[in-house]
Structures are given as C-alpha cells and as structure tokens.
Amino acid sequence: MKIKAYISTIIFLLFASVVTAQVTFETKVSKKKLGVNERLRVDFEMDRDGDNFTAPKFTGFRIAAGPIQSMNHVWNNGQRSFSKTYTYFLQPTAEGKFTIKQAKVEIDGKVYKTLPVTVQVIKAVNKPKDGNNTEYTVSEGLHLVTEITNGNPYLNEPVTVSYKLYVKPGINVNDYRELGKPTFNNFWSQNIETRLKAQSGTYKGEQYSFVILKRFVLYPQKTGNQVIEPFSIDVQVSVRSQRRDVFGSRYETVHKTLSSSQRTIKVKALPEAGKPAGFSGAVGDFDFEVTTSKTSLDATESLQAKVEVSGKGNLKLFQLPKLNLPSSLEVYDPEFTERVSTRLSGMQGKISDSYTVVPQYKGKYPIPSISFSYFDPKEKKYKTLTSEEIVINVIEGPVNTMASTNTDNQTNTQKQAITTNGSQFRFLKTDANLTAIETENFFKSNLFYGLLFGPFFFIPIILMVRRKKRAFDNDIQGSKTRLANRLAKKYLSEAKKKLGDKEAFYEVLERALHNYLRAKLSIETSEFSKEKISQLLGERSVKPETVTDFIGLLESCEFARYTPATDGTITKDYEKSVQTISQIDKQIK
To answer: Are residues 106 and 166 in the same domain?
Structure first.
C-alpha cells in the first residue's frame, strides 16, 4: 500500500509540474453583446513574457485606442504570478456577428495562438439617464475636446491644437493615463509644455471646469484636407453615489476611456499670382538685413558677413538667401545660427548665416544687395525685402596684378621692358675643374655585408607577414564584415557627400537603399512596399530587428520631406544606414 501511495504521489507531482509548465494565452472581452454605440474592450492576456505579438484584424470594428501594454508581478505566500496584457478599445462600425480572430505571440521560441471569440453587435442602445447611475453620470460629465485655432490655414501657417478635459461639478478626477501619443501626419509639430491647472468655462452652454492636457503648434506641410487623429485617455474619477461602502463613504471610483473627435484642417496652397522668383517657402512677418563686422581692413585680415532673418513665422522651415561675393575674396562656408522659440502663436526669433571673408589684395570690393521674399498670411500677399550694397575697403596689401579694378571700374595695365645686365647666366661654369675620386673595394664593404646578411634579417619578417595574411584570409566572418562595410560605403558614398543638404541627402539615401535592394533581391522599383521588403528579407534569413531598422530608414526618408531634420539627425541616419546595410549583407542568404 505504501508503494502504491508513493507511486500515486510521484505521478501527481509530475502531472502538476506539466500543468504548471503550460502557457496560458487567451482573449478576454468586456461583453459579448453590445450596442453599435457602445465600446468593446479586448484583452489578450498571457502568463509568460512573450515577444512578437501580432493582433488580429478587427473586422467590423474600428480601433478607438490601443494597443496598451501592461504587466503585473504578484507575490503571494512566496509564489510569483505574472501576467502580460495587450488591451484594445474597439468601436463597432456595423451591426451583426463578428469574430475576434486569433492573436499570435512567441514564447520561448514557440508560437501560441488564442481561440476566436464571437461578439454580437445590435442596434444602438439607450444609455440610462438616471442621475443616480454612476456610469451615466460619468459619461455625461466628462468630455475630451480637441480645439484648433485655425481650421483653414495657409501652407506653413501656424495652427495651435489644444486637448481639453471638461469636468462637470460633482466629479473628481483622480488621475489619467494617455492611451498613445497624438500623431500629426503631414505637419511639423512642436509640443508646448503646459501646467495642469483647473479653470472655469462653459461646454455646450453649461458650466464646467476644464484642464488643458496637451498643446501643440502645427505647421502644415501639405495642402488639402489634413486629419487630426483622435486622442484617447483613461481617466480615474470619483463620483458621488447613493450607496455607502463599509467605511461609510458615498463616493465610487470609476475608470473611463475618453477619446476626442477627429478634426479636419483644410490647408490652402500659397497663391501663384505674384510669387517672387526667389521665394523659398517663408510664411509669416519678417525683417531682413545683411551686415558686416567691419568695412575697412587690411589684406589677409578677416571680417564676418551676416545674413539674418528675424520675426514671427516658420523660421525653421526655409533656407536663407546666399551671398554673392566677388571672386577675388576668399569666402568660407557659412555658419548657421538659430535662436528660435516656439510659443502658442508659433515660432519667433531669428536665424542667420555668418560668412567668414578674407580679402587677399588691396582695393574696394562691393557686396551686392540680395533679396528675401516671404508670404504674409494676414495681408494675403508676398513681400520682398532687399539689403543695401556694402563696399569693403581693403587699405593695405598686395595689388592684384592679374586683374586689379579701381573704384572707377577702369583697368590699367602697363608693360615694362625686360633689361639684362649681363649676369643672368653667370651660374653656368665653363671650367669644370674635375678631380679623381678614390674607388672602394666591394669585398668586405658595407654594401657587401648588407647583401650577405640582409636576407637573414628579412626572412622572419616575411614569415610573420605571411602568417598574419593567412590568419586574415581564414577569418571568414571578419572578411564578410569587411566586405559588407565596403559595400555599404560604396552605396552610400554619394549620400555622404550630401550630409550638409537635408533634402538632397534623404533623396540620395532613399535611392541608395533602393539600389541596394534591387541588387540583393532582384526586384523592380514598383515592387518596393514595406510589407514586400519585410517578407523578402525575412525569407532570406535577415533578423527581424535588422529588417525593422531598414524599414525605419525608408520611413525617415519619407518623413524628411515634411519635417525638419538637424545635422545630428542626418549624421545619425547615415551611420545607421552603413550599419544596417552591413548587417543585411552579413545575414542574407
């Protein structure tokens, strides 16, 4: 009997260990029957930490918020429990029966799938209008609103977007959590820091308190209808209730998911009528000037010539006009300076290019006037500002004998006769005065011993070099790495030359990335989609993180057309491109 008991215990323990080793991955829904005007919460929950989570396509629903990732670690009597959840909030788009299909996740090298869940969507339901109902009170007393200052701006005219949370009296907001960051496609955006300060106001004619959660200044980079996507938050509030808890409290804590409505901004194109030839995209109200640090100096001394634009407008989104200096002045590449702050009304400050100029010869050199054009959205017309001509007077220094120009623009050249004094060829000697030199016996000379013992000195060096070369050739991985690095630099050599020019750099970088793929994968340009590239690289054994880096580079090239990029960002993208192409070339099969 004891033996049987022991065997039963062992079998039970083995069975228990197998059960505890199983992975749980399931789909949980907040309700299986809901109205078309209600929201559905879907949780994909696992009891192990998994990677490469893939959500299903939510047919019949629109994603209102998510995915929201959360993890919980709980210790109870020395036992650890873990859960990881991906949460989505879905809005039905039609009535009917819809299936939440299988989600996938990779845990310890194995792929696990959830079971499908069917949800029925019925006609819109009447929400209870009972003032004593907590859910009704919260839904009627909390509103997340997107407010914009200008719904019909010009291209590159600033628009301020504010997200306000309106709260009715009687509701106390304890905390809130953002469900994703606001995204602004086809806009240059700048977040404006704001303090969470409660203010009084009205919403739909009723008295509310409100707080501004976020503020952004946007500069549209594309004309037409541009969408401001909804912003979602999870709010924890306390609401007065008719029920008392064990402590006698009449307040009930509720979580509520709020989403602002989608807004559309209609962006107007700048007028073509009257557009100046040198217009570079400046929109706002600006001042323009060209100044020099000095107007009189000696040759080989330096001066600073500054081209500066100041005022209010899209200062970070256009190029300054270039100085046209005389070729007889040595000019260095300009140093760009930016002192711009972004406020609720938009950018303001100044930008400038500072040229270092070094004259080489004596004379007077004019710096011609240049023009700067911008569009004034308030007056709805183009304006052009022109600088004054500046004359640089070089007082002391050599005269430019190749081409000297005086202030009257008259060129005087005078030829001088060459005279000889009979001593020009005095270095040619007609009397050599040659003397005999002593000859050295080759045998036992330094040269003799050098040739005799030299090979014994060089043979060890040659053997060492050959050993190093053999090890170098046998280093297959190192050879592949070096070859991959050379290939990456070959494709990106032209992009490296354009590091100082954002638009040219990203255009050349995108072409280099496409040429590399065309050479490696043998596909045409028309087949270049992110999904196709990811599929082909994955089939050729390229690691997922490397594929993600490559797709990220292509997206950087696309976003660079609409968003500004600093020199640091451009350099970082170039270095990442070299590394990514090198990694693909080593991994691809």
So the answer is: no
Structural domain harbouring 522: 477-587
Tell me 186's DSSP state.
T
Nearest in space to 311 (alpha carbons), one of 280, 335, 345: 345
Phi, psi of 561 (to 5 degrees): -75, -25
Residue 462 in any domain: the answer is: no
| Spatial distance between the Cα atoms of 479 and 472, rounded to a whole number of angstroms | 8
pLDDT of 445-471, one tens digit each? 777 777 777 777 778 888 888 887 777
Of residues 109 and 427, more confidence is placed in 109
pTM: predicted TM-score of the whole model, two decimal places? 0.51
The CATH number given to whatever domain includes residue 308 is 2.60.40
Q: What does each C-alpha distance from 293 to 296, 301, 339 come to in angstroms?
A: 10, 12, 20
Tokens for 447, please give them.
């040269």
Q: Average of pLDDT values for 221-235?
A: 90
How many CA atoms lie less than 13 Å away from 350 in the CB half-sphere? 11
Q: Which residues have C-beta within 8 Å of that of residue 421, sequence separation ≥ 6?
A: none
Query: Are 578 and 490 contained in the same domain?
Result: yes
404-446: per-residue pLDDT in tens? 444 444 334 333 333 444 444 444 455 556 666 555 566 667 7
Whole-number Å distance between alpha carbons of 412 and 399: 12
Domain count for the chain: 4
User: How confident is the model over 146-156, as pLDDT tens digits?
Assistant: 999 999 999 99
With a CB cutoff of 8 Å and minimum separation 6, the contacts of 167 are 141, 142, 173, 208, 209, 210, 211, 237
Query: Which amino acid is it at 434?
Result: L
Q: Render pLDDT for 50-61 as a digit per residue (tens, 0 to 9).
A: 888 889 988 888
| Same domain, residue pair 149 and 194 | yes
Burial 98-124 (b: 16+ CB within 10 A, else e): bebbbbbbebeeeebebeebebebeee
Residue 166 lies in a domain: yes
List the one residue out of 383, 373, 371, 389 whose CA is nearest residue 322: 371
* Other beta carbons within 10 Å of 208: 20
Residue 464's H or E segment, with its range, is helix 446-474
Given a cut of 80, whether residue 13 has pLDDT beyond it is no
DSSP letter for each residue of 127-165: PP--TT-HHHHHHHHEEEEEEES-SSPBTT--EEEEEEE
Indicate whether 438 belongs to any domain. Answer: no
Distance CA 582, CA 480 (A): 9
User: What's the pLDDT band for 391 if we cut at 50, 70, 90?
Assistant: very high
- Residue 413 backbone phi and psi in degrees, to 5: -120, 140
